[in-house]
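Table 4 source record.
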Amino acid sequence: MSVMQIVHTADVPLLEAWRRVTDWERHGAQVPLTRTTVATAPPTRVGTRFTARTGLGPVGFDDPMEVVAWRPPADGRPGHCRLVKHGRVVSGWAEIEVRPAPDGRGGSEVRWREELRVRGLPRAMDPLTAAAGRFLFARALAGLLREAR
């Protein structure tokens, strides 16, 4: 499996950063040719399920995910979310942690760790998969934190 980690600091307050990076439908808007659909009623909690569909027309694949840990930031504690991927094409997990920025200026720091496996790719491709994932997820994370609401 490919393991990657992205750390992004933004001038976005902690709770707003948490809201943005856990707005699952907005994730799809940041990834080319992807749309995310949430299958469970809000609010997000353990058991929330959503699917990111990547493709063009009928050609593509689904990346179904489930929230298995959910702890929004509170009382000085960072927010933490863990997702498990249940797909036939992509499997693995992702963890998102949102904490106050280390510089103390009121922004936030987001840590995104992900371990994924793409079915049919040999393990020798793991470094390339990790590099592509880092590029794609760093771009998506920056977009989520940059967008105005």
